[in-house]
Amino acid sequence: MKKILFLLVLSFSVAHSQEVGILKYKGGGDWYANPTSLPNLIQFTNQYVKTAIDSNIATVDPSSVDVFNYPILFLTGHGNIFFDNEDVENLRNYLISGGFIHISDNYGLDKYIRSELKKIFPKLTLEEIPLNHPIYNQTFKFPNGLPKIHEHDKKAPKGLGLFHKRRLVVFYDYESDLSDGWEDKAVHNNPEEIRLKALQMGANIIEYAFKN
């Protein structure tokens, strides 16, 4: 029955509704990190990019057909992440049929997420996204690429991606901590300038996902 559902879903493109979802992954990592980040980003994006994103943010299991209801899914955390075979098949189908995943490394996720992405696309490798890519050139312009939001180990921030048939299907903000920058100001006490850059880049990611 599950296979039949997959085939039925794949007969349509991923829903073009203006909604976002959070991936609730296995492995024990804190998929629920940064609870104020997405509500703030949605409010900002609706105001400045003129989207109409539903403020009710769904939590979605990677193996559920519900992932196909969302043009963009967010994944973050600090620790272990694990996709089983069912998750892998479902997420691969979601991405190749028009879906998009934004991964925000909260520091500690990197060593786990790379191997899990390899399960989804064994032949693809994360590559640095060129500065002239549209994701840096939506409503807000980032000619120097991904902004640095939090400093942990003195490494430069990198926007990494997986491209399937030349379409960017996964955006991974590495050494940036974008989603921390979206949280309520009181959480991290980020300077307003830094917080604004994080929200602008996040809005660009959503805008790009909705268009592509």
Plain-language structure description:
The chain has 212 residues and is α/β, with parallel strands linked by helices. It has a single domain (2-211), classed as Rossmann fold. 34% of the residues lie in helices and 17% in strands. It is built from 7 helices and 7 strands; from the N terminus they run αβαββαβαβββααα. The protein has helices at residues 2-10, 37-48, 85-96, 110-120, 178-182, 185-188, 192-211; strands at residues 20-23, 58-60, 72-77, 101-105, 127-128, 158-164, 167-174. A 7-stranded mixed β-sheet has the order 2-1-3-4-7-6-5. β1 (20-23), α2 and β2 form a beta-alpha-beta unit. α2 packs across α7. The radius of gyration is 16 Å and the shape is globular. The two termini are 30 Å apart. The model is unreliable at 1-12 (pLDDT under 50).
